[in-house]
């Protein structure tokens, strides 16, 4: 087999109907801010937080922005921060929405940027955007009057108010909570129902028999980074009919040893494609490594390339699931 890549393809609003205008893969919800929805209390990594309807949202990375755009909230988004590791936004299903808002920075999220943008809500993950080390945390933003929203999937190691959900359930949870914050619960319910249907369709078509052993290779030469069971690729692998060889690790993105990889005898290797190291370079490294020479996936050249935004918490994980499931079905036929 050769490496595979794919084209990228409750507070109710009183007396005001929400009109959803579909355009391509995105949707714009009209009449949200005009409806005057009052404050709502929504969990943030286990902590109950009161939100008012935001009008100048700053989103960090594609997963955050995609969730907002999937709910038709482009008019509430001021701009986005997109570090270089992310693929170009022009490849996104919501490319038009990205073009309609401001590109704020290709650096990491920081407090100065948020203040300069006059943001009233920041959407990011814990240790992916929000960070104690860089001095931008929900607590710090609370202190300066800026609301914050954290991806439920990233709350696994958030100090003080831990919350643990399966990665795909984290996506659904985020969409539902954002729906409450912006008063678009109906739209959120529709989007989540559609994603659940697509996931269930994949599970119903999963190959029979023993699950295929799968290793996700993120990066690293001395020691590889891979996916534990607290990040979306674990759900992608298992729902498609595979077994994450490091799925017993109660971790998010984590470092392991090459010896452990070899001993796990993966039959398929997923390459997470991002940053300035092309996926093919990662494949070349693995196929030229003496330690990996006898690993079944390397011998059979069973590599699947997963786009960065299909591996982090966001709507495109559903695309990643469908693509990987198609690959496993072809492999088993």
Describe it for me?
By secondary structure, the protein is an alpha/beta fold. The chain is built from eleven helices and 16 strands. The strands form five sheets. Strands 5, 6, 7, 8, 9 and 10 form a six-stranded parallel β-sheet that branches. Strand 6, helix 2 and strand 7 form a beta-alpha-beta unit. Helix 7 runs parallel beside helix 11.
Number of strands: 16
- The sequence of SSEs as H and E is EEEEEHEHEHEEHEHHEEHEEHEHHEH
Number of helices: 11
Query: How many angstroms does the end-to-end distance come to?
Result: 12 Å
Beta-strand content bin: 15-25%
Percent helix among the residues?
A: 25-40%
Structural category is: alpha/beta
Spatial shape = globular
Characteristics:
333 residues; 21% strand; 11 helices; four-stranded parallel β-sheet; six-stranded parallel β-sheet; alpha/beta
Write the layout of secondary structure elements.
Blueprint: E1 19-23, E2 26-30, E3 40-44, E4 47-51, E5 57-60, H1 61-70, E6 77-81, H2 95-100, E7 102-105, H3 111-116, E8 121-126, E9 129-130, H4 138-143, E10 147-150, H5 167-182, H6 185-204, E11 212-217, E12 225-227, H7 232-240, E13 242-244, E14 253-255, H8 258-264, E15 268-273, H9 279-288, H10 296-299, E16 303-307, H11 317-332
Parallel strand pairs: 5-6, 5-8, 6-7, 8-9, 8-10, 11-13, 11-15, 15-16
Antiparallel strand pairs: 1-2, 3-4, 12-14
């Amino acid at each position: 087999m050769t490496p595979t890549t794919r084209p990228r393809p409750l507070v109710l609003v009183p007396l005001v109907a929400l009109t959803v205008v579909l355009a391509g893969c995105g949707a714009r919800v009209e009449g949200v801010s005009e409806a005057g929805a009052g404050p709502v209390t929504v969990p943030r990594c286990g902590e109950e937080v009161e939100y008012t309807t935001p009008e100048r949202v700053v989103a960090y990375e594609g997963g955050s922005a995609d969730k907002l755009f999937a709910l038709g909230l482009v008019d509430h988004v001021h701009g986005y921060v997109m570090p270089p590791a992310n693929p170009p936004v022009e490849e996104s299903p919501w490319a038009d929405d990205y073009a309609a808002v401001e590109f704020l920075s290709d650096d990491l999220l920081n407090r100065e940027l948020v203040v300069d943008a006059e943001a009233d809500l920041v959407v990011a993950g814990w240790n992916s955007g929000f960070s104690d080390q860089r001095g931008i945390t929900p607590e710090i933003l609370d202190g300066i009057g800026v609301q914050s929203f954290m991806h439920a999937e990233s709350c696994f190691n958030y100090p003080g108010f831990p919350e643990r959900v399966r990665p795909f359930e984290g996506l659904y949870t985020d969409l539902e909570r954002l729906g409450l914050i912006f008063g678009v619960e109906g739209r959120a319910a529709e989007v989540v129902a559609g994603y659940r249907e697509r996931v269930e369709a994949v599970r119903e078509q999963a190959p029979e028999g023993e699950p295929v052993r799968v290793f996700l290779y993120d990066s690293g030469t001395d020691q590889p980074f891979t996916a534990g069971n607290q990040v979306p690729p674990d759900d992608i692998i298992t729902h498609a009919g595979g077994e994450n060889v490091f799925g017993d690790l109660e971790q998010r993105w984590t470092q392991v040893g090459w010896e452990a990889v070899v001993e796990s005898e993966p039959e398929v290797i997923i390459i997470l494609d991002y940053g300035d190291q092309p996926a093919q370079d990662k494949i070349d490294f693995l196929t030229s490594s003496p330690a990996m020479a006898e690993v079944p996936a390397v011998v059979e050249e069973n590599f699947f390339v997963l786009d960065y935004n299909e591996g982090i918490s966001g709507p495109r994980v559903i695309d990643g699931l469908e693509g990987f499931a198609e690959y496993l079905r072809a492999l088993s036929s």
